[in-house]
Specification:
Largest sheet: 5 strands, mixed
Helix content: 10-25%
Distance between the termini: 69 Å
Strand content: 25-35%
Number of strands: 9
Structural class: alpha+beta
Radius of gyration: 22 Å
Length: 188
Protein backbone atom coordinates (compact mmCIF):
# COMPACT_ATOMS: atom_id res chain seq x y z
CA UNK A 1 0.00 0.00 0.00
CA UNK A 2 2.80 2.43 0.78
CA UNK A 3 4.27 2.09 -2.72
CA UNK A 4 0.86 2.79 -4.24
CA UNK A 5 0.46 5.90 -2.10
CA UNK A 6 3.94 7.14 -3.03
CA UNK A 7 3.19 6.66 -6.73
CA UNK A 8 -0.15 8.44 -6.41
CA UNK A 9 1.41 11.33 -4.48
CA UNK A 10 4.15 11.62 -7.14
CA UNK A 11 1.59 11.70 -9.98
CA UNK A 12 -0.59 14.24 -8.17
CA UNK A 13 2.45 16.43 -7.45
CA UNK A 14 3.42 16.31 -11.11
CA UNK A 15 -0.14 17.23 -12.06
CA UNK A 16 -0.07 20.24 -9.70
CA UNK A 17 3.24 21.45 -11.22
CA UNK A 18 1.86 21.02 -14.76
CA UNK A 19 -1.32 22.94 -13.85
CA UNK A 20 0.73 25.76 -12.33
CA UNK A 21 2.96 25.98 -15.43
CA UNK A 22 -0.10 26.04 -17.71
CA UNK A 23 -1.73 28.77 -15.63
CA UNK A 24 1.48 30.82 -15.63
CA UNK A 25 1.84 30.56 -19.44
CA UNK A 26 -1.85 31.19 -20.17
CA UNK A 27 -1.76 35.01 -20.03
CA UNK A 28 1.20 35.48 -22.43
CA UNK A 29 -0.25 32.87 -24.77
CA UNK A 30 -3.63 34.61 -24.71
CA UNK A 31 -2.00 37.98 -25.43
CA UNK A 32 -0.14 36.55 -28.43
CA UNK A 33 -3.29 34.86 -29.70
CA UNK A 34 -5.33 38.09 -29.36
CA UNK A 35 -2.64 40.17 -31.07
CA UNK A 36 -2.49 37.78 -34.03
CA UNK A 37 -6.23 37.36 -34.46
CA UNK A 38 -7.46 40.78 -33.30
CA UNK A 39 -9.85 39.11 -30.88
CA UNK A 40 -10.69 41.11 -27.74
CA UNK A 41 -9.80 44.39 -29.46
CA UNK A 42 -6.06 44.09 -28.89
CA UNK A 43 -4.00 46.21 -31.23
CA UNK A 44 -0.40 45.72 -32.26
CA UNK A 45 2.11 46.83 -29.64
CA UNK A 46 4.64 47.95 -32.26
CA UNK A 47 4.41 50.53 -35.03
CA UNK A 48 3.54 49.56 -38.58
CA UNK A 49 5.12 51.16 -41.60
CA UNK A 50 3.15 53.76 -43.49
CA UNK A 51 2.34 51.87 -46.63
CA UNK A 52 1.35 53.67 -49.78
CA UNK A 53 -2.19 52.40 -49.53
CA UNK A 54 -4.77 53.42 -52.04
CA UNK A 55 -7.27 55.70 -50.34
CA UNK A 56 -10.84 54.52 -50.65
CA UNK A 57 -12.74 57.80 -51.04
CA UNK A 58 -16.01 55.95 -51.61
CA UNK A 59 -16.18 55.02 -47.90
CA UNK A 60 -16.04 56.94 -44.65
CA UNK A 61 -15.35 55.33 -41.32
CA UNK A 62 -16.11 57.04 -38.01
CA UNK A 63 -13.30 56.70 -35.49
CA UNK A 64 -14.31 57.36 -31.88
CA UNK A 65 -11.62 58.13 -29.31
CA UNK A 66 -12.02 57.32 -25.63
CA UNK A 67 -9.45 57.93 -22.89
CA UNK A 68 -9.61 57.22 -19.22
CA UNK A 69 -7.04 56.98 -16.47
CA UNK A 70 -7.05 53.94 -14.22
CA UNK A 71 -8.46 54.61 -10.72
CA UNK A 72 -4.93 54.81 -9.26
CA UNK A 73 -3.71 57.21 -11.98
CA UNK A 74 -4.16 60.87 -10.95
CA UNK A 75 -3.54 62.33 -14.44
CA UNK A 76 -6.14 64.10 -16.53
CA UNK A 77 -6.16 62.20 -19.81
CA UNK A 78 -8.34 62.95 -22.84
CA UNK A 79 -8.34 63.01 -26.64
CA UNK A 80 -8.23 66.36 -28.46
CA UNK A 81 -11.19 65.22 -30.55
CA UNK A 82 -13.82 62.64 -29.62
CA UNK A 83 -14.78 61.60 -33.14
CA UNK A 84 -13.23 61.75 -36.60
CA UNK A 85 -14.45 60.72 -40.06
CA UNK A 86 -11.73 59.10 -42.22
CA UNK A 87 -11.38 57.41 -45.57
CA UNK A 88 -9.71 53.99 -45.40
CA UNK A 89 -6.07 54.31 -46.44
CA UNK A 90 -5.66 57.94 -45.32
CA UNK A 91 -3.00 58.63 -42.72
CA UNK A 92 -4.18 60.80 -39.83
CA UNK A 93 -2.54 62.34 -36.77
CA UNK A 94 -4.42 63.27 -33.64
CA UNK A 95 -3.30 64.02 -30.12
CA UNK A 96 -4.20 63.01 -26.61
CA UNK A 97 -3.66 65.47 -23.78
CA UNK A 98 -2.11 64.33 -20.51
CA UNK A 99 -1.89 66.58 -17.48
CA UNK A 100 -0.19 65.71 -14.20
CA UNK A 101 -1.87 67.91 -11.55
CA UNK A 102 0.20 66.42 -8.71
CA UNK A 103 3.45 67.80 -7.34
CA UNK A 104 5.47 64.72 -8.27
CA UNK A 105 6.71 63.13 -11.47
CA UNK A 106 4.62 60.17 -12.64
CA UNK A 107 5.21 57.65 -15.40
CA UNK A 108 2.17 56.44 -17.33
CA UNK A 109 1.55 53.58 -19.75
CA UNK A 110 -1.48 53.59 -22.04
CA UNK A 111 -3.11 50.30 -23.00
CA UNK A 112 -5.24 50.39 -26.16
CA UNK A 113 -8.34 48.47 -27.11
CA UNK A 114 -10.35 48.56 -30.33
CA UNK A 115 -14.04 47.84 -30.62
CA UNK A 116 -15.44 45.91 -32.39
CA UNK A 117 -12.60 43.49 -31.75
CA UNK A 118 -12.45 42.20 -35.33
CA UNK A 119 -11.68 45.74 -36.56
CA UNK A 120 -8.43 45.77 -34.55
CA UNK A 121 -6.76 43.88 -37.40
CA UNK A 122 -7.51 46.80 -39.73
CA UNK A 123 -6.61 49.72 -37.43
CA UNK A 124 -2.89 50.41 -37.90
CA UNK A 125 -0.82 52.66 -35.64
CA UNK A 126 2.26 54.16 -37.27
CA UNK A 127 3.22 56.17 -34.20
CA UNK A 128 1.62 55.95 -30.79
CA UNK A 129 2.35 57.16 -27.29
CA UNK A 130 1.15 53.73 -26.15
CA UNK A 131 4.35 52.10 -27.51
CA UNK A 132 6.42 53.61 -24.69
CA UNK A 133 6.03 54.72 -21.11
CA UNK A 134 5.32 58.43 -20.71
CA UNK A 135 7.19 60.46 -18.09
CA UNK A 136 5.48 63.64 -16.93
CA UNK A 137 6.79 65.98 -14.22
CA UNK A 138 4.35 67.25 -11.61
CA UNK A 139 2.28 70.26 -12.65
CA UNK A 140 3.04 69.77 -16.35
CA UNK A 141 1.06 68.65 -19.36
CA UNK A 142 1.92 67.27 -22.78
CA UNK A 143 0.41 66.29 -26.09
CA UNK A 144 0.83 62.64 -27.00
CA UNK A 145 0.52 61.93 -30.74
CA UNK A 146 -1.21 59.04 -32.44
CA UNK A 147 -0.59 58.52 -36.16
CA UNK A 148 -2.83 55.90 -37.75
CA UNK A 149 -4.72 54.67 -40.76
CA UNK A 150 -7.56 52.27 -41.37
CA UNK A 151 -6.74 49.48 -43.79
CA UNK A 152 -8.83 49.73 -46.99
CA UNK A 153 -9.46 45.98 -46.62
CA UNK A 154 -11.72 46.70 -43.62
CA UNK A 155 -14.93 44.75 -44.27
CA UNK A 156 -17.87 46.94 -45.27
CA UNK A 157 -19.88 45.81 -42.23
CA UNK A 158 -17.76 48.15 -40.09
CA UNK A 159 -18.67 51.83 -40.24
CA UNK A 160 -17.51 52.83 -36.75
CA UNK A 161 -14.34 51.90 -34.87
CA UNK A 162 -13.82 52.88 -31.25
CA UNK A 163 -10.26 53.27 -29.98
CA UNK A 164 -10.09 53.27 -26.20
CA UNK A 165 -7.02 53.89 -24.02
CA UNK A 166 -6.70 53.18 -20.33
CA UNK A 167 -3.77 54.95 -18.68
CA UNK A 168 -1.93 53.22 -15.82
CA UNK A 169 0.56 54.56 -13.28
CA UNK A 170 3.78 52.55 -13.77
CA UNK A 171 6.07 54.84 -11.79
CA UNK A 172 7.07 52.04 -9.41
CA UNK A 173 8.49 50.08 -12.37
CA UNK A 174 10.37 53.09 -13.78
CA UNK A 175 14.14 53.24 -13.44
CA UNK A 176 15.95 56.61 -13.69
CA UNK A 177 18.00 55.47 -16.70
CA UNK A 178 14.79 54.88 -18.66
CA UNK A 179 13.87 58.53 -19.06
CA UNK A 180 12.91 59.21 -22.64
CA UNK A 181 12.73 62.45 -24.60
CA UNK A 182 9.60 63.57 -22.72
CA UNK A 183 11.57 63.55 -19.46
CA UNK A 184 14.46 65.50 -21.01
CA UNK A 185 11.95 68.01 -22.35
CA UNK A 186 11.05 68.97 -18.80
CA UNK A 187 14.69 69.18 -17.67
CA UNK A 188 14.43 66.24 -15.32
Amino acid sequence: MNAKHSTLIGKLSLLVVAMFAFGYALVPLYDVFCEITGINGKTASEPVSAEAAIVDTSREITIEFIARPNQQMPWIFKPEVRRMRVHPGEIHVMNYLAENPTGQAIVGQAVPSVSPGQAALFFHKIECFCFTQQYLAGGNDMLMPLQFYVDPALPSQFSTITLSYTLYDVTSQWQPGQQDDSAKEFGE
